[in-house]
UniProtKB/TrEMBL annotation:
Taxonomic superkingdom: Bacteria
Transmembrane residue ranges: none
Ranges of residues in domain AB hydrolase-1: 91-331
Pfam short name (any one): Abhydrolase_1
Organism whose genome encodes this protein: Noviherbaspirillum galbum
Protein name, per record: Alpha/beta hydrolase
Gene3D superfamilies associated with the record: alpha/beta hydrolase
Length: 364
């Protein structure tokens, strides 16, 4: 009887082992070749990710070697901020949009034109260009405004005119709201000020997801973003063509570095909540505000963003560049410089400026 029990136990054990080895839990057998195929697929995927990581690292190093820091650095509250300073006169601070960096303002020609009359300070916002972005802070508009306020204080710069483009416009507006005596005036370009449904946010914010986002940023995301780059530019610059200088001088792979993709993804995720938190505060702005927008902006609605802001801000003027898209500073520099001058004079009236046709100022 003991032998029979042992044989029965052995038979059941062998049956379970056989099921685990060759079954898939649904009564189907897995052949050795099928198991080998699955393992080969996993190994192939791992090898592809490793190859992608090596390629991304190579392109990142190449981009940084080709585009070294053009400005200076200042350490503020554990953040290493990179900034470019040009010209003399009244201080003028430039804040770029999401996914961008100082190079955008350089290739537009705005820095060199403004530097003829102002002391221009263009910042790489946290995580962009050569500025760091510590994970310990949620870098919404308030946190960035506080950081830049302290940076300007350390630099001995008081009451600058602050120019913000796109996401940077929220930061600029927050600087004036939270530190009203420290800002002389605002020029807000192509800004996103009020929360709206954004179909691009779920995809754009994926690289900011903990763990999985880190894997994506160092492997797949830069490659996919590079494939989508022409379409992204068409949306940003359209209906105009991408300017030759931007196409020639702006570094694609500086933008696609893992560190910068993390910042861009985080700001994509923060965009709607940030606009929601600011939506009822704009009426508190008590500095001159020039609002500049393109009539054909495909990224944000001029009507529901810039025109609405103009309706709510008492000391504001509205400048609409006809036939221009989101990258208004590349095509309507003359109007932007006029808006900066207008704000510098602290004109108190509220008005809508007639629509203007985009023109380029000759670059010298």
């Amino acid at each position: 009887m003991g032998a029979n029990v042992m044989n029965a136990f052995r038979s059941r054990h062998e049956e379970r082992y056989r099921d685990a080895a060759v079954g898939d839990g649904l009564g189907r057998e897995r052949s050795p070749s099928r198991l080998l195929g699955r393992n080969a697929a996993l190994l192939g995927a791992g090898a592809a990710l490793a190859a992608a990581a090596v390629y991304v690292q190579m392109r990142t190093r190449e981009a940084e070697n080709t585009n070294p820091p053009a400005g200076r650095f200042i350490e503020v509250e554990g953040v290493r901020l990179h900034y470019l300073e040009r010209g003399q006169g009244q201080p003028l601070v430039l804040l770029h949009g999401n996914g961008s960096m100082i190079q955008d303002f350089e290739t537009s020609g705005l820095i060199e034109e403004a530097a003829k009359h102002y002391r221009v300070i263009a910042f790489d916002r946290p995580g962009y260009g050569y500025s760091t972005r510590p994970r310990s802070t949620i870098w919404g508009p308030q946190a960035q405004a506080e950081l830049l306020h302290h940076a300007l204080h350390l630099m001995g710069i008081s009451r600058p005119i602050v120019v913000g483009h796109s996401w940077g416009a929220m930061v600029a507006a927050t600087m004036a709201l939270d530190y009203p005596g420290a800002v002389k005036g605002l020029v807000l370009m192509s800004g996103y000020y009020y929360p709206t449904a954004r179909l691009d946010v779920p995809f754009a914010s994926q690289p900011a997801i903990p763990l999985i986002g880190d894997l994506l940023r160092y492997t797949v995301s830069p490659l996919l973003s590079r494939m989508m780059w022409p379409a992204v530019l068409r949306k940003l610059f359209g209906p105009k063509e991408v300017p030759e200088r931007f196409a020639r001088e702006y570094s694609v792979w500086m933008t696609l570095r893992p560190s910068q993709l993390r910042a861009a993804a985080a700001e994509a995720a923060l965009m709607i909540p940030a606009a929601f938190s600011l939506r009822n505060r704009y009426r508190e702005l008590d500095v001159p505000v020039a609002i500049v927008t393109g009539s054909s902006d495909r990224q944000v609605s001029s009507r529901f963003q810039s025109e609405r802001l103009h309706d709510e801000v008492r000391r504001s003027t509205l400048h609409v560049a006809t036939g221009v898209g989101h990258m208004v500073h590349h095509f309507a520099q003359g109007e932007i410089l006029s808006a900066i001058e207008e704000v510098g004079k602290e004109l108190p009236q509220r008005q809508a400026v007639p629509r203007i046709h985009a023109q380029r100022i000759p670059l010298h």
